[in-house]
Design a protein that fits this description.
This protein is mainly beta. It has one domain: Sandwich (Jelly Rolls), CATH 2.60.120.10. It is built from two helices and eleven strands, in the order ββββββββββααβ. The strands form three sheets. A six-stranded antiparallel β-sheet has the order 1-2-3-10-5-8, with helices on one face. Strands 7-6-9 form a three-stranded antiparallel β-sheet, with no helix packed on it. A hairpin with a 2-residue loop joins β1 and β2. The longest helix has 12 residues.
Length: 151
């Protein structure tokens, strides 16, 4: 991996679909020697991913809309300009309070991008987590991610 300049104009980036959001890769780990990544995430109000744990540090920064970010037993209200750092292996999720939200995620290492690229490739788009449980379980088995209620 090498450090290279990566310019990504507004409205451009690789889109990765997840059951509860669309992530647009704005800075990929391949351009940062696998040190960090930057995603623009858009999520609609609706069912969120259950509490889950990931093996990487990440920070959310809200651009538009509002959501509650749950980390363990605590809830944090994030609106435009608010941020929150989520440590590795902390159980967390978010619930969108407005019709939609757009937020940035800075993630250390390339693990998040690889995980979401696998979800995008293996889980049929537009299916709920319940309807795509078998595909999601196969993806989870390949990454350092666990979701409450899924083996």
């Amino acid at each position: 991996m090498e450090n290279t300049v990566q310019y990504t104009p507004a409205g451009v980036g690789v889109e990765l679909a997840a059951p509860d959001a669309v992530l647009t890769v704005k800075v990929s780990a391949k351009n940062t020697a696998d040190q960090y990544e930057l995603f623009e995430v858009t999520a609609q109000r609706g069912p969120a991913t259950p509490l889950h744990r990931t093996d990487w540090h990440k920070t959310y920064y809200a651009l538009h809309g509002r959501m509650i970010v749950q980390i363990g037993d605590e809830g944090y209200d994030l609106g435009p300009g608010c941020s929150i750092a989520i440590p590795p292996n902390a159980p967390h999720t978010f619930t969108v309070l407005t019709p939609s939200i757009t937020f940035l995620v800075v993630s250390l290492t390339g693990l998040m991008g690889r995980f979401h690229a696998d979800i995008d490739a293996m889980v049929p788009h537009g299916r709920s987590m319940q309807d795509a449980a078998a595909e999601l379980q196969a993806v989870l088995a390949r990454h350092p991610v666990s979701v409450e209620g899924m083996p």
